[in-house]
Amino acid sequence: MRKLALPLLLLFFFNAAGQTLDSAARKPNSEADSTINLYFTTVGQTSAIYNGRIFYWYPLMQGHAFYSTSKWQPGSVLYDGTWYHSLSMMYDIFKDEVILKHPDSAPIRLISDRVQEFHLSDQHFIRIRPVTGNGLKNTFYQSLEEGKVSLYATRHKRIEESIVDNTLIRTFIPVDGYYLLKEGKYYEVTSQKQLYSLLKEHKQGMSQHLRQQKLKFKKDRENTIIQMVKYYNQSYK
């Protein structure tokens, strides 16, 4: 009887979890998650999260394909509507895939379209579906700042090839992108001038704030963008 009770209880929580997949800011710590985690702790490596494809490491490369380290990091994944916690993970930003450390075998590549969001250490990534006209790519977006306007980043790497002493050298090169969400519309941030235009209500105060922080767009693009968005949001508190 006890064996039947837990699956039935889980079925209730799975259905409940599947009703709120569009919440990008939801924290993975609900009572339903705790019950599900208890179940998957019991079934261990046979749980659905470990039924992905085998991950093969990149041979003979300079650098690595991951964000932001090639070491395993603690994390959580919302996969097919269910949160899985206490995982060892990496984010392959060359292939745009979440990699899990399997307890007893090779690492596993999760199917990206089935990952709604994930936490990698203290970094939060969500999948924002592109639709006609919003200019987004079909990828994961790192949440950098949320408020009246929200800021997201895409993390990718490309391979650059060069010949050194008649030897082909292949190197991973990071390529980041930034997107601002304002009044329901996404804008790719390509310059400081454009961002000032988007946040023009507080342009003068932002400019002074950047001077105080000694930040320049060309030298520290990401931190400059973050500070501009933070200042804008704080101006409305």
Keyword list:
alpha+beta, twelve-stranded antiparallel sheet, 5 helices, 12 strands, 34% strand, disordered N terminus
Radius of gyration: 21 Å
Give the N-to-C terminal Cα separation: 54 Å
Bin the helical content. Answer: 25-40%
Largest sheet: 12 strands, antiparallel
Integer count of domains? 1
Helix and strand composition category:
alpha+beta
Model regions low in confidence, pLDDT < 50 over at least 5 residues: 1-25, 38-46
Average pLDDT reading: 85
How many β-strand stretches? Answer: 12
**Proportion in β-strands:** 25-35%
Helix segment tally: 5
List the helices and strands in order: HHEEEEEEEEEEEEHHH
Shape: globular
Describe the structure concisely.
This protein is an alpha+beta fold and 237 residues long.
Structural description of this entry:
- The protein is an alpha+beta fold and 237 residues long.
- The chain has one domain.
- The chain is 26% helix and 34% strand.
- The protein is built from five helices and twelve strands.
- Strands 1, 2, 3, 4, 5, 6, 7, 8, 9, 10, 11 and 12 form a twelve-stranded antiparallel β-sheet that branches.
- Strand 9 and strand 10 form a beta hairpin.
- Helix 1 packs across helix 2.
- The chain is globular.
- The N terminus is likely disordered.
